[in-house]
Structure formats: C-alpha cells, structure tokens
Amino acid sequence: MQFIRLYNSFEEATFVGRVNRFVLELSLKGRRIYAHLPNTGRLYELLEPGQPFYVVKVDKGKYPYKAVSAYFDGQFIFIDTIKFNYLFYLLLKAGAIEDLKCKRVKRECRIADS
Description:
Elements: E1 11-20, E2 23-28, E3 31-36, E4 52-57, E5 65-72, E6 75-78, H1 81-93
C-alpha cells in the first residue's frame, strides 16, 4: 500500500489548557497559541499539562492552528475527526482493510430517505 499523506507538515506543541470544547491553549516554541480542536470528546487522558500535541497551520478559520494528533502512552492518537471519513475512504479504496474488500466505494452517499 502507498503512503497516505494527510498533512504537508506539522509541529509539536505542549498542552496548557482547554479554553472550550473546540479550542486548546498550547505552547509552541516557547509562545502561547490557540488551536482548533476538531474532536469535542472529553479526552481526559490527553488534556494534561505538558502533554504533546501535534498541530498544523491553517489558512482559514478563527485560529491559525488545528490540533490533529496527540502522543499518549507510547502511541500517536489521531484526533482530527474531520479527516476520519477521508482516511477511511482512502483505506477502503486501496483495499487495505482485509475484511472490507469493495468493488466500488462512494463517499457519503444517500441511502433511501437518509
């Protein structure tokens, strides 16, 4: 399977605080930044002072960064819920999920009255 690049680049920041459901306060290279958090879950294990987060620069939106991943317990945790559907689509299309082989993959299609 081919390498899947979801972001051009990212930077490591550390957790300072959670402003609200959608915004993190982080420290990046010694300065405070605010980043959009696309995952509104509780994330208690990740939201500890000094916890590593990975952010990408964004051109539009209220905040200049978006949090896309965290590092916890020796693993990278993907928290960009906006990209989950896209990543799943790419994996299905590439046949990378053994139990879900498909002849045709269509994203977010309408079924009956849904």
